[in-house]
Amino acid sequence: MSYLVCKFGGTSVATASALTQIKKILDLDTRRKILVLSAPGLSSGIVTKVTDHLITIAEKTLKNKDVRRDVGAVKKRFITNYTELGLSEEVILEVLSELDVRITQNKEHPEKLRDSIVACGEEFNANLFSQYLNLCDTPAEFVCPQSIGLRVSSVYGDAQPTEEGMKNLEEIAAIADSGKVVVFPGFYGIAEDGSVATFSRGGSDLTGALIAEAIGAIEYENWTDVNGILSANPKVVSDPEQIPALTYKEMRELSYMGFNVFHEEAVKPVTEKKIPIRLRNTNNLSNPGTLIVSDRLPDERDVIGIAAASGFCLFNIQKYLMNREKGFGRRTLQIFEELGLSYEHSPSGVDDLSVVLDQNQLQPGTVNSIIRKIEDELSPDSIRTEFGLSLIVVVGEGLLHKIGVLAAAAQAFADAGININIVNQGSSEISIIFGIDSADEDKAVRVLYDSFFNDDTDDE
Amino acid sequence: MSYLVCKFGGTSVATASALTQIKKILDLDTRRKILVLSAPGLSSGIVTKVTDHLITIAEKTLKNKDVRRDVGAVKKRFITNYTELGLSEEVILEVLSELDVRITQNKEHPEKLRDSIVACGEEFNANLFSQYLNLCDTPAEFVCPQSIGLRVSSVYGDAQPTEEGMKNLEEIAAIADSGKVVVFPGFYGIAEDGSVATFSRGGSDLTGALIAEAIGAIEYENWTDVNGILSANPKVVSDPEQIPALTYKEMRELSYMGFNVFHEEAVKPVTEKKIPIRLRNTNNLSNPGTLIVSDRLPDERDVIGIAAASGFCLFNIQKYLMNREKGFGRRTLQIFEELGLSYEHSPSGVDDLSVVLDQNQLQPGTVNSIIRKIEDELSPDSIRTEFGLSLIVVVGEGLLHKIGVLAAAAQAFADAGININIVNQGSSEISIIFGIDSADEDKAVRVLYDSFFNDDTDDE
Questions:
Q1: Confidence band (pLDDT; 50, 70, 90) for B403?
Q2: Does B435 touch chain A (CB under 8 A)?
Q3: How many cross-chain Cβ pairs, A to B, lie less than 8 Å apart?
Q4: ipTM over 0.85
Q5: Nearest CA to CA, how far is B212 from chain A (Å)?
Q6: Which one of A348, A355, A397 makes the best mutation probe of the B interface by having the most chain B beta carbons within 10 Å?
Q7: Average model confidence (pLDDT) for chain A?
Q8: Is B104 assigned a ligand-binding role in the annotation?
Q9: What mean pLDDT is reported for chain B?
Q10: What InterPro entries does this protein's entry cite (chains A, B) (predicted)?
Q11: What are the residues whose beta carbons fall under 8 Å from the beta carbon of B111, sequence distance 6 or more?
Q12: Nearest 5 degrees, angle CA B376-CA B380-CA B383?
């Protein structure tokens, strides 16, 4: 059988009514047999995520502080939600009692204690939701990393699945084959010594992706509170188009610059098996969402999205006959690497080379260290710095073979009087990156959007 | 006193009539007191440069072959030219006898023997021309590296001046101050042991530049057989505009891609002292030539020239989440460096990096070595290669602050149906580089020329 793996984010599991909506979504498609749940998140009137409470509990526990109030707040969330759904308080408290066990465990390994507490939100939620489904006469089984053997590396807070863990996940298909809905907690796995180890924050997306990969799901549905991916930031462009379908690469290029609807690293497992990801809105079932696929059919749109990010700076190094010096570029990049800095782009002219990097990496004095090292090691004719740059990326699969996209983008900037400091079109066939002054960022996104999405009205 | 340093190239000293033209040029401006001469070059009916004869003589001498015929050819050139100008054959032969000495010297150091023979063309020419000037009642003095002490490094065939050598050159001003015209041979200096060491080929340009720098000349005149620098290759664009003035940097960017009117390295000494270089045509005194300066006034032209070069290839490396891997770019460039390859540009996208290099560097098997090393060391998702790329550079000082130049260039490509594989605008403020398929190179240069130079007629 082929299944949809459905992951529900924090707001989609925040309240009893949200949880009943999941039940409704399950009933609409019988292929939805594998659920991955986050911990209860925010909702109207709820200002703290369960996971944030749990982080506080872990921190206080390690400092031997009183956590009763915080533990009470966590328990109250689950009790409120699941009693409303018909579970008895007794059953719920039985599940929640595991938290009391975890806060009293040995503090010898703070990171293990922390992860085991922080993962409780997902674990309890999946367990209780499976009980709720059974109560509704939907046969369901709570399956968790402990029971299935989702083995991960012992990097607490940033664990990665092991080969054995991936192999074990395959068994989930057999459980679904028996007709039961599998309810699985996101965000964590089991380290070699049996302790809980969490993924990086937002890691429930990764859990869903791993299961989708392991069982060869026909689609990975990622349910949140947004309709899908928009073609531009709605805070900048009014009512931007929703993207119906885009490729993994396009999503990655967009998410690089602030489109953070989806946990990036979670894309990797599914890309390898070419499993489509569909972003859906739990509260708007009539919206088909955004489909993320390995290939898409060319459509009338050359450009599918425009993203922007600020906070970049640039070091421009000029040296006469630079290109005669073998290794000049490599040595330049090595200086940045030795100072612990990663760079984004390195456009070059004939006798000059620029290094563009995220300026948030810079500590006081870093700029001087960079300049001193460049002067000492490369003897340039001059070094120039620019701060407060924004990078604007125009994304579209096969973009570089669409003649005229660069011209249209550059013309839009020219018409708006925006100076382009950097252009980086790297033969990736998927994006063109412009570096401009941050003061022009919003204007740039708007004129590009108008050029590529509102061109019908502009013509004639 | 302030002087013009005047260097005359091979065709400008090829025949007796060419040499009288130099005398005429001297008489037109009394500030022309320092001449640097090349060896006699090509002219109508003369198919071998004196320097090429001398290279043959040096090679044959080292192999103990008969050189009498070649020596005869060299002597005949000087005898023909200078007897026509009134020097006695006896005087000429006396000067030329030095060649007989040099071909019989010790062969223990082949490179010293070679350089001392090859430099004879310039040495004899300067010596004889000074005698001709004196014959015309123009007081002149033959000054040479040996007499003034133009000390150079002992890198035969690619020598560089030493600090002492530069200091000694300053004395040339004093000789000119005495009212005499200094006639100096180009192309060589004197190594530490007193032997002749030549500059790299075309190095007479460097001699002139060094003297201009040493004496603080008001202008460095470089006389050849072309009017100046054209804004595009006349073999591609019909009757391209001559550039009236451009900056050192602009010249460098143009010369990078095949505008080789001027020996590149020769620019460096004069740039440091901001001495203007004027390219002039010996045979067209009414043409003011092209002036190369440190700064130029902004004029109506945003773009001053368009150059192109073919024979580039590209390696495109894709790896998901590449920008999270610190040092990825540096390690990529290091692979090319370790294989002894230099690269031109390295444009990048979000998850991809391209390395553009001169494909003439590649030996059979190099491409496979590159790909294997990249796969072994960087584990990319994919590597793609492209061969037969041309780079087109659009040059103009302050270009990047002229809004709309990129748009105009990109539009010209789009209108002509030319696909742009790479764009590299590196914040150098001076050029935009496009990578395209070589099949489109000529068309690209023509449409860019039309866009930036023929726009008056286009706009009607």
A1: confident
A2: yes
A3: 206
A4: no
A5: 19
A6: A348
A7: 92
A8: no
A9: 92
A10: AceGlu_kinase-like_sf, ACT-like_dom_sf, ACT_Aspartokinase, ACT_dom, Asp/Glu/Uridylate_kinase, Asp_kin_monofn, Asp_kinase, AsparK_Bifunc_asparK/hSer_DH
A11: B156, B157
A12: 100
